[in-house]
UniProtKB/TrEMBL annotation:
Belongs to the iron-sulfur cluster assembly SufBD family. NCBIfam families: sufD (TIGR01981). Transmembrane segments: none annotated. One of its GO terms (biological process) is iron-sulfur cluster assembly. This is ABC transporter permease. It comes from the Bacteria.
Length: 397
């Protein structure tokens, strides 16, 4: 079964529709945010933002008290490159805490309990060709670890940052992205954890005038992984492309929540997330919120989520939302679909002598190929291709 929704500018205008929160639901424009941990109650699962989450797995992150986490539990290794300055920022030391104001308990605790944030800055007017890679290694899932990272591209600079998460951990993370005017930033976050890892991350970007952000999230490992990604336009002319790829196995819960806040005129956003699921209890959640504020005339935005269910017992939830406060836009739309293998594609391939197992592999490869090709780092493209082949071998051999 395939479910699809799609709304174009023409449909909005002809029907006089404004897509916003249903009666009684909270607008993203007014959602509560605070650094005060006491202002964020422990979720019960009845809240809209937590209704899909595996709260039992996440409970240690809600209850975490201040602890001393050493490199024996979680380690950072920064592969520094020329043109990128590395340092640390204490709590409230700008630009830390200027972009991210916690909207949930995990983010608030992380802000409170992380003494120093890793700060990586692409310097003004410098185009950095090589990616800056941060290896984040988990070594002990019995202790809750917290971390904060601030990524910055100063005016007219460009850089690529890779956050590679591996090993075993219970890890709460805040990532702030600060884009200066006319700068370009690419952030690639790889969640390639061991099977017992629990990871909740909050990514928030502030996009300056004529700045461009490419934000890529790839989630393959971990028992329970939840990534909240927010992009906010602060001046005209900004562009955001958000790309996501995930593959959920038996017993995995992979959740991605996105929010694009069009708070400035003449900005563009495009969101494409694709996921595959296999095995009993495999679960994915994708929620995409787009808010076009009254001042955001000339906005162009589109978001799409596609899910491919490979076996019985897997479940994918997909929730796109548009909230529009002005009719003076270039275009706004969304689409979501969840389905099984395309029988026509399989028939076409098998009719040409390709065995069924190989035909299924080809369909899945084609499903992800578009997104993999958008990743500009060759080593990561090769790694993802190999990882997908490994995942497919589990269910198709």
């Amino acid at each position: 079964m395939t479910l699809t929704t799609d709304h174009s500018k023409a449909e909005l205008e002809s029907e006089g529709l404004s897509f916003g929160p249903a009666t009684g639901e909270e607008s993203r424009a007014t959602r509560h945010a605070s650094f005060d941990v006491a202002q964020h109650p422990v979720p019960t699962g009845r809240e809209e933002e937590w209704r899909f989450a595996p709260l039992r797995d996440l409970l240690p992150l809600f209850q975490a008290e201040e602890t001393t986490v050493s490199e024996e539990h979680l380690s950072y290794d920064v592969d520094e490159v020329e043109g990128v300055r590395a340092g640390q920022l204490g709590s409230g030391e700008g630009p830390r805490d200027s972009v991210l104001v916690p909207e949930d308990l995990v983010a608030a605790r992380t802000a409170e309990l992380t003494a120093n944030a890793l700060h990586l800055t692409a310097q003004r007017n410098v185009e950095v060709d090589q990616p800056t890679v941060v290896e984040i290694g988990g070594h002990d899932a019995s202790v809750v670890a917290h971390g904060a990272i601030v990524l910055e591209t100063e005016e007219s600079s460009s850089a690529t940052f890779v956050l590679n998460h591996t090993g075993s951990a219970r890890y709460a993370q805040n990532v702030e992205m600060v884009l200066g005017a006319n700068s370009r930033m690419t952030v690639i976050s790889l969640q390639d954890w061991d099977d017992d890892a629990v990871h909740v991350a909050t990514h928030v970007a502030s996009i300056g005038r004529d700045a461009t952000l490419k934000h890529i999230v790839v989630t393959l490992g971990g028992k329970a992984v939840r990534v909240n990604a927010t992009s906010r336009f602060t001046a005209p002319g900004g562009e955001v492309e958000q790309i996501g790829l995930y593959f959920a196995d038996d017993g995995q819960h992979l959740e991605h929540r996105l929010f694009v806040d069009h708070a400035a005129p003449k900005c563009t956003s495009n969101v494409t997330y694709k996921g595959a699921l296999q095995g009993k209890g495999a679960r994915s959640v994708w929620v995409g919120d787009v808010l076009i504020r009254k001042v955001a005339e000339g906005t162009e935005t589109y978001e799409v989520n596609r899910n491919l269910v490979l076996t019985e017992g897997a479940r994918a939830d997909s929730v796109p939302n548009l909230e529009i406060e002005t009719g003076e836009i270039e275009g706004a739309g969304h689409a979501a679909a969840t389905g099984r293998f395309d029988d026509e594609q399989l028939f076409y391939l098998r009719a040409r002598g390709i065995p069924e197992i190989e035909a299924r592999r080809l369909v899945v490869r084609g499903f992800f190929a578009e997104l993999i090709q958008k990743i500009d780092v060759p080593d990561i493209r090769e790694h993802l291709t190999a990882s997908i082949e490994t995942e497919l071998a589990r269910s198709m051999n």
